[in-house]
Amino acid sequence: MFLKEVHLLNxxxxxxxxxxxxxxxxxxxxxxxxxxxxxxxxxYYLSFCKSFSNPIDKNNIHHDELFxxxxxxxxxxxxxxxxxxxxxxxxxKIIKRNEKEYEKxxxxxxxIPLVMISPYDRDLIVEGGEFRRKFMDAVISQTDRSYLNSLxxxxxxxxxxxxxxxxxxxxxxxxxxxxxxxxxxxxxxxQEIFEKRSKFIDELNPLISKYYSAISSNAEHIQLEYxxxxxxxxxxxxxxxxxxxxxxxxxTSVGIHRDDLLFNMNDRPIKRFGSQGQQKSFVIALRLAQFxxxxxxxxxxxxxxxxxxxxxxxxxxxxxxxxxVNLEYFGQIFITDTHVDRIDSLVQKLKPEHIIFxxxxxxxx
Length: 365
Description:
Helix content is 44%, strand content 23%. With 365 residues, it is of the alpha/beta class. The protein folds into 2 domains: 1-113 and 300-365, P-loop containing nucleotide triphosphate hydrolases (Rossmann fold), CATH 3.40.50.300; 126-299, RecF/RecN/SMC, N-terminal domain (Glutathione S-transferase Yfyf (Class Pi), Chain A, domain 2), CATH 1.20.1050.90. The strands form 3 sheets. The protein has a 6-stranded antiparallel β-sheet with strand order 2-1-4-5-6-7, covered by helices on one side. The protein has a 6-stranded mixed β-sheet with strand order 8-12-13-3-14-15, with helices on both faces. Strands 9-10-11 form a 3-stranded antiparallel β-sheet. Strand 4 (67-76) and strand 5 (79-88) form a beta hairpin. The longest helix is centred in the middle third of the chain and has 40 residues, at 176-215.
């Protein structure tokens, strides 16, 4: 599957813009602020029904307008699909496939597999566990509808349990039977989520090692480690043990919503011991491993978005990366870069099928 065409209306800095794409490599070049990343974000919307960078939909509406619309036309062996995403101030978000509106946005997740590599990926290394949990959940949910349903059910139950804990404290009361109902749900769904996350990390580890070696001349040993208390103790016992603490805090302090994903290089945290270049290579390898796993599970080539990935990578690593994604194994690719000459040099050297969009000059070549 590849994206043939996109139409943006009142989306971010674009008032009205249509673009026709190559089924292989599409490059957006130009100065900062011309809207390169905004086009990638529009493509991201068509897969995930949300922005990659700004989760508040109304903030993505063009200045002084009331709505935005992003429409994409995709082509595959099964024919053409038209996906439309529209957001209007004061109304619910609408996602349509071939003119038919989805009842739930979750019904669309996974239909168009996509992987995005961006400067924000460094947050996976330097920020807290929430970022890494979201990474795991987003990737698994693209291929496993039951996981997404379990995750939504778990998060809803956590909110209900937290509200009950606050009620107990505020009213100086306690009802163990009522609390046990929520604990039982959390224990069941939490175990399901834990097992699928563990399997996911086991499958991802050899892939990230392979891609890190491919784009880096270094010989570091790279490994992911799933950090969860559920690996040593069942969640129902953990919840009972943490009850006094939870009552004091008025929220649930243990569970798979507190898990983390550890990134190690030579058995040490890459956050502390990895250089900027090594960290950048690591997150790129992580996303490429995600790409391969999605391809295996969906039997489709995910669309690959590469946003300003050349920052902090030397020329050798840049060239090795482009050689890699230019292989037939990969499908449609979208790249942004501020350096027009660098993109020109690469495509002239590797000669892939491509289109270059110079957004500063509003030219296509």
